[in-house]
C-alpha cells in the first residue's frame, strides 16, 4: 500500500511540474508578443502616425506629444502635410490622430467634409485668435480700411497680403469670405509658407516697411515683434478658435493608452509659447520638446493620468 501511495505521489508531482512549466512557457510567450502585464500593458497598436501642418504652434505641440507618447512605449511618426491631407489621412485611417485642428471657424470646411469619419476629442488649447496682422508702426487699424487704400497702403504693399500654405483653413477663410465681404477686389492673397511669411514679416520690420500677413496666436512672432491684429468689424474671422484633437475611428480599441493620452492632452498659450520661442531661436524641435517635457512633469502627469 505504501509503495502504491508513493507511486501516486510521484506521478502527481510530475504532473504539477509539467503544468507549471507550461504556464511559464505561456508567460514567456506573452512577454514576447507584448501581452504581458509589464510597463507595455494595453499598448495595443504600437506604431502611430500623426500628421501636422508646418505652423509654428503645430511644430511645437506635435513634437511635445511625440515625446510623451514615446515615453509610454509608442513609436510615433510625425508627418508634415498640408491641411487637406491632415484631415483626409485621419478620416480614411491611413493616419491615427491630429492635434492641430482649428475649430469652429478656421477649419470649418474641412470639418464638414470629413466629420462623419472622425472622432473629436475636444480642445487641447483654448482661445486661439487669427486674422490679418500688421506691425504696430503702420497707421492702419481695421480690415475695412484696406478697401479704401487708407494711407496708400495698397500702393506701398503692391496690393499683396502675404499668406501661408495654400489650402490652409485661414487662407480659404481669408480669400473666400473676408476679402469679398470687405470689398478687397484690388488685393491679392499671396500664398507661400509659414516660414516664408515670417521671413517676409521680419524683413519688412527691419526696414520699417508696410506689410500685411495672415497670422494667428499662439505664434512666436508676437514675442519677437510689436504686432497688431487689424480689427474685423464684420467678425468674419469669428471669435477665437480652439485648437482641437481628432483621432481616427477605432483608435480607442486599437491603441487604448495612446487614445487616453491624446484625450487628456491640454495646455496653455504660455506653455506652447515656451517651446515655440526655443525653436525659433534655433533649438531643434525634438530637443525643445524633450526639455519642456522634462521641466513640466505636472502637465505630463495629467496627460498620462491612469496609465502605467
UniProtKB/TrEMBL annotation:
**Entry keyword set:** Cell membrane, Membrane, Signal, Transport
Q: Which SUPFAM superfamilies match?
A: Periplasmic binding protein-like II
Domain ABC-type glycine betaine transport system substrate-binding: from-to ranges: 46-295
Q: Does the keyword Signal apply?
A: yes
Q: Which InterPro entries match?
A: ABC_Gly_betaine_transp_sub-bd
Which cell locations does it reside in? Cell membrane
Q: Where is the signal peptide?
A: 1-24
- What this protein is called in its record is ABC-type glycine betaine transport system substrate-binding domain-containing protein
* Species per Swiss-Prot/TrEMBL record: Virgibacillus siamensis
Amino acid at each position: 500500500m505504501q509503495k502504491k501511495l508513493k507511486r501516486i505521489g510521484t506521478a502527481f508531482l510530475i504532473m504539477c511540474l509539467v503544468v507549471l512549466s507550461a504556464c511559464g512557457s505561456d508567460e514567456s510567450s506573452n512577454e514576447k508578443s507584448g501581452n504581458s502585464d509589464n510597463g507595455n500593458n494595453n499598448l495595443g497598436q504600437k506604431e502611430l502616425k500623426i500628421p501636422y501642418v508646418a505652423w509654428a504652434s503645430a511644430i511645437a505641440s506635435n513634437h511635445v506629444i511625440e515625446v510623451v507618447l514615446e515615453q509610454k512605449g509608442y513609436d510615433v511618426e510625425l508627418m508634415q502635410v498640408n491641411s487637406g491631407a491632415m484631415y483626409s489621412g485621419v478620416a480614411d485611417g491611413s493616419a491615427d490622430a491630429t492635434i492641430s485642428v482649428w475649430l469652429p471657424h478656421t477649419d470649418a470646411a474641412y470639418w464638414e467634409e470629413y466629420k462623419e469619419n472622425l472622432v473629436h476629442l475636444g480642445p487641447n488649447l483654448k482661445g486661439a485668435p487669427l486674422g490679418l496682422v500688421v506691425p504696430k508702426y503702420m497707421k492702419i487699424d481695421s480690415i475695412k480700411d484696406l478697401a479704401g487704400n487708407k494711407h496708400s497702403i495698397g500702393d506701398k504693399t503692391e496690393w499683396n497680403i502675404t499668406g501661408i500654405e495654400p489650402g490652409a483653413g485661414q487662407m480659404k477663410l481669408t480669400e473666400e469670405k473676408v476679402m469679398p465681404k470687405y470689398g478687397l477686389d484690388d488685393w491679392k492673397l499671396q500664398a507661400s509658407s509659414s516660414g516664408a511669411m515670417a521671413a517676409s514679416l521680419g524683413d519688412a520690420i527691419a526696414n520699417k516697411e508696410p506689410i500685411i500677413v495672415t497670422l494667428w496666436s499662439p505664434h512666436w512672432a508676437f514675442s519677437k515683434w510689436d504686432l497688431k491684429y487689424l480689427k474685423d468689424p464684420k467678425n468674419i474671422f469669428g471669435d477665437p478658435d480652439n485648437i482641437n484633437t481628432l483621432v481616427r475611428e477605432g483608435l480607442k480599441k486599437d491603441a487604448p493608452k495612446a487614445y487616453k493620452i491624446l484625450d487628456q492632452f491640454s495646455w496653455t498659450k504660455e506653455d506652447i509659447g515656451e517651446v515655440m520661442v526655443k525653436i525659433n531661436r534655433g533649438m531643434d524641435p525634438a530637443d525643445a520638446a524633450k526639455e519642456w517635457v522634462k521641466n513640466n512633469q505636472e502637465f505630463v502627469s495629467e496627460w498620462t493620468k491612469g496609465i502605467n
